[in-house]
């Protein structure tokens, strides 16, 4: 999709925006899931089509107004989200993790207004806050120069737990990257929004709630983190930039973990897997996109 295409093909604006909502769950956090779904159903001035996707689980006990989609096995987070998006209808699609919620009843209305007010935007990620008052991880602000979490800006990766896109942009970029299974699919989604001629946007004035949990506590996370860095390069970057991207992140990990050789061993095993495993179909971004991203503050080599 060339710059401006999504805007020309955008659906007719309704008096109340219709939003497709996808909540993905394995059924292990029923209270959190209910809280998130209730926060969606409490949204004002929007029409909703909500589905709860059971990733290897048949959802039960859902509130009225939420449909269930049971997947027979855990297909991974991005593929599960994609499956949900196939069965809902709306001018926009909102993805909400089962341990996240949106505290403001006007969150979706405000996020849609942000997109409608600036047609250059193709994705919105809100500011993430731990509702218990715990310190909010800096990684939730997807910028190299973090600054204040309340500051808004274009971004080149997203925290995936609460994300809104126009439905035509979601379809144009091909949805979430299923081969990742878990980790870094939000970087690819942001890159492909940029490649579609739009901008991914971090909205510091919109808030989603999520508990502060360290994903790196799992060895599996370290392996997938490394493998998926390579997948990102192979699936999206021109050949000349692939070793630069992987090499820059290898240097960053060595600097971070040089005192933790077991972590580094796991990480580099993941890198090796990333170069040899099937990464799925590729969609190489154009050099014009790379130039736009660079001018906006972050070339896709780090």
Describe this entry's structure for a reader:
It is a single chain. The chain has 302 residues and is an alpha/beta fold. The protein has two domains: 19-209, Spore Coat Polysaccharide Biosynthesis Protein SpsA, Chain A (Alpha-Beta Complex); 219-296. The chain is 37% helix and 19% strand. It has a five-stranded mixed β-sheet. It has a three-stranded mixed β-sheet with strand order 5-8-6, sandwiched between helices. Helix 7 packs parallel to helix 9 and helix 8 (242-257) packs antiparallel against helix 9 (261-276). The radius of gyration is 19 Å and the shape is globular. The two termini are 25 Å apart.
SSE layout:
Elements: H1 5-8, E1 18-25, H2 30-41, E2 47-55, E3 66-71, H3 77-85, E4 92-97, H4 107-117, E5 121-129, E6 153-155, E7 162-166, H5 167-172, H6 185-195, E8 199-209, H7 219-236, H8 242-257, H9 261-276, H10 287-295
Parallel strand pairs: 1-2, 1-4, 2-3, 5-8
Antiparallel strand pairs: 4-7, 6-8
Helix pairs in contact: 7-8, 7-9, 8-9
Please compute the radius of gyration using only Cα atoms.
19 Å
* Helix-strand string: HEHEEHEHEEEHHEHHHH
CATH architecture of the largest domain: Alpha-Beta Complex
How many runs of DSSP E, i.e. beta strands? Answer: 8
* Main sheet characteristics: 5 strands, mixed
Please tally the helical runs, counting DSSP H or I stretches of 4 or more residues.
Answer: 10
Spatial strand sequence of the major β-sheet: 3-2-1-4-7
Distance between the ends: 25 Å
Family: Belongs to the glycosyltransferase 2 family.
GO molecular function: glycosyltransferase activity
Keywords: Glycosyltransferase, Transferase
Organism: Curtobacterium oceanosedimentum
């Amino acid at each position: 999709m060339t710059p401006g295409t999504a805007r020309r093909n955008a659906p007719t604006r309704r008096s109340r925006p219709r939003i497709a909502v996808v909540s993905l769950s394995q059924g292990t956090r029923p209270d959190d899931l209910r809280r998130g779904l209730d926060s969606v159903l409490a949204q004002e001035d929007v029409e909703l089509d909500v589905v709860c996707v059971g990733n290897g689980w048949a959802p039960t006990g859902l509130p009225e107004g939420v449909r269930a989609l049971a997947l027979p096995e855990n297909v991974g987070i991005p593929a599960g989200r994609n499956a949900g998006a196939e069965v809902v209808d709306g001018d926009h699609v909102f993805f909400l993790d089962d341990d996240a919620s949106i505290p403001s009843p006007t969150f979706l209305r405000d996020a849609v207004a942000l997109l409608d007010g600036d047609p250059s935007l193709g994705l919105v990620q809100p500011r993430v806050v731990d509702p218990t008052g715990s310190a909010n991880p800096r990684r939730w602000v997807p910028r190299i120069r973090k600054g204040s979490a309340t500051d808004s800006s274009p971004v080149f990766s997203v925290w995936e737990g609460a994300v809104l896109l126009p439905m035509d942009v979601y379809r144009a970029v091909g949805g979430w990257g299923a081969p990742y299974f878990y980790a870094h699919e939000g970087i690819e989604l942001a890159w492909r929004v940029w490649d579609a001629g739009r901008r991914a946007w971090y909205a510091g004035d919109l808030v989603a709630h999520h508990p502060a949990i360290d994903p790196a506590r799992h060895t599996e996370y370290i392996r997938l983190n490394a493998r998926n860095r390579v997948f990102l390069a192979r699936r999206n970057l021109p050949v000349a930039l692939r070793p630069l991207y992987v090499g820059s992140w290898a240097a960053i990990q060595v600097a971070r973990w040089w005192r933790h050789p077991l972590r580094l061993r796991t990480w580099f095993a993941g890198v090796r897997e990333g170069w040899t495993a099937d990464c799925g179909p590729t969609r190489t971004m154009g050099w014009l996109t790379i130039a736009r991203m660079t001018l906006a503050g972050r070339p896709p080599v780090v």
